[in-house]
Fold this protein.
Amino acid sequence: MPESTGLLSGISVVECGSGVAASFATKLMADLGADVIKVEPPEGDITRRYGPFPGNVPDPEKSGLFIYLNANKHGVALDLSQHKDRAALHSLLAKADLLVHNVAPSQRDQFGLTSAKLGADFPQLVIAAISPFGDTGPYCDWNAYELNVVNAGGWAFLSPGASEFPELPPLKAFGHQGDYQGGLHACFAALAAYFHRLESGKGQSIEVSQQECIAGMLEMNLMHYTYAGRETSRLGTRVLGPWKIMDTADGSILAVCVEEDQWRRLVDLMGDPEWAHEEVFQDRLARGRNADALYALMQEWISGWKAQELYHEAQHRRIPFAAVNNMSDLYANAHLSERGFFATLDQPGLGKIQLPGAPSKYASGWSMRTPAPRLGQHHAELLDDRKSARLSAAASARGIASETKPELPLAGIRVLDFTWAWAGPFCTMQLAHMGAEVIRVETENRGCVTRGLPPFADDVAGPNRAGYYNQYNQGKRSITMDLSKPEAIQIALAMARRCDVVTDNFAAGVMDRLGLGYETIRAQRPDIVMLSMSGYGQTGPLKSYVSYGPPAAATAGFFALSGYQGHGPSEIGVSYADPNAGIFGAVAVMVALLHRKLTGRGQYIDQSQLETALALLPEGLLDYALNGTQPQRSGNRHRWMAPHNCYKSAGDDDKWVSIAVGSDSEWRALCQVMEQPSLADDRRFQRAQARKQNEDALDAIITQWTRARDRWEATRELQRAGVAAFPSMSNKDLATNEHLAERGFLVQLEHPVVGRRIHTGIPWTMSGTPCSIRHAAPTRGADTDSVLRELLDYSPDRIAKLRDAGVLG
């Protein structure tokens, strides 16, 4: 494998386990130059069996998902239940900087992967372990697949958004989103721990809960319960109007107007019809209340357009419509082509294929260098001490011990945060969790949009009472400045000189027009790390298009791929593209800080919300790339696992339990729990392929059993037998959950206005640098005076004069 010159070159990583989560975490590192050794079981990683395959013919060396996750890696095959192979693994770990795995807690001792033992044997090693429910708590040993994770985390209960079908179950989004988020958070935490190791010389152990990763990404849904006592669900209509997937002449479009000025421009585009001025459509809330009438009138007009033509015409008028793209639309997209998003990989046996490329654009350092390894391809090379000396040298070069040990990985790092809404604040919240000092810049007249959105504490509105803001700004400081005033820009530049990171998520070009672009800030501090997050990126023909999370998900293909079998495209319950962009942004900043520590050079990062969403859809994209086909919507069903669905349980009309079976032994265990052992030998269900062919009958049998049982009763019975099951959790379920409370994920910190409210916390733990949320979200402008005094040495008199002049307004 050629030597890498990427941003993470010289870092040695070992990956163990099987499936998506650990593979995705290390993929992000490998693509940036880390030297990743993938340890597969002798039968190969399970993703070799997932596909998609060319011509739909299974071949473990031609699985699109495996290839996407494992390009740029070395590959060895070890049976970790055998002593000699555990010894071989330990020889790799002795030369490594990081170990990332998703081996279940109950199996780690058997495979030699107990974190405490490894930490004692390899004190330099950073160990990141990903599991469905974490390493501690009542559910830590429970079995779960991705379907169970997204139900346990509360996402599926909210999906599809604004559903009209109460009889249909909670719906998972397409792909392995629970696994991708576990991998993303593990990547961020592992790199932060490695950053700390460069100072302290000490490794540590990290554990990541996938349930908590998902529960932390539910927009304002948890706070609807903890702030106002409301349970949210996927059923009903949107509060705002218009907001709906609608049919065009040749496809679908997400028709949405968030602001009143967008609605006025849409009315103009529709030819200013008389009905648009009626009292029932006077504002966005009224349009939401009268959605049926609104959409009936809009549909007549929209059906005369082609989807792509209406999308571009609306966007030219700054209306945030989005075409519900299929995979063919994305591969033909001129914007993605100009930005060079798709990367070409020459994979043996397949030839050149187009894969999703860099989710975040750095000046350099990301590359698609080598194909995914064949099973055991590098076994002899990497387990021969004479041939692996370069790995040992790379690892030891990073063992820089120091007597100074920061309290947290990013202690001493200061972030000047110009972000607003959700994606940007979600990013900088991760940095705050790791100990960075995050200073949010707001304005008195135009604060963060989330300060003005419900839920409010006890349903009393106010900028410091908004649960949405208070959730995603924990641990930060807040200052207010009027950035339309030149004096405020000069203050911002002076602050940037004393910061390590600057973040924004304005539209492309806004920071430059303000006088706060990268080149201007770099002139103040040459080694600055700057992250600009926008809907479509800073370059390309669509860079000025308006985007929010839902339009980004529609544009990326999430809506076209997700939905009930036989139904149309579906929204996916939460504005998923926002927090996904946020955690990708946190990873990108962490990579840039590591690169700066090792080289002294800063970095500008251009991140597109669309591209970070596309990075999570390889199965859909590669089905088209390999076969020219658009995957069919299949609800909660899996390509080869059956049963794999949410099933109605006893209680009210919206109680469900997710059940997934990944092996014949699990199927037999399910039959025993249902007291129908003969089903295990029924030819219709005896093997996975037969179960898939008879899935309707299978689901009917399981539903008959679950309907007679409480969802928790069914879950516990099945888990005792080793069958993956979990209730579909509501926001109330999460806020009152014993497992999340025992693990300390649900936090209640004193806020000066709303008192103690339950918020979600940090979905990882770290043995050497325990992270915690240090304080509640700030009230607006609470830290203006103290920040100006501490950073710029301003006197109280000078601050008062600036405030009187409106500079700090």
The radius of gyration is 26 Å. Confidence is low (pLDDT under 50) at residues 386-403.
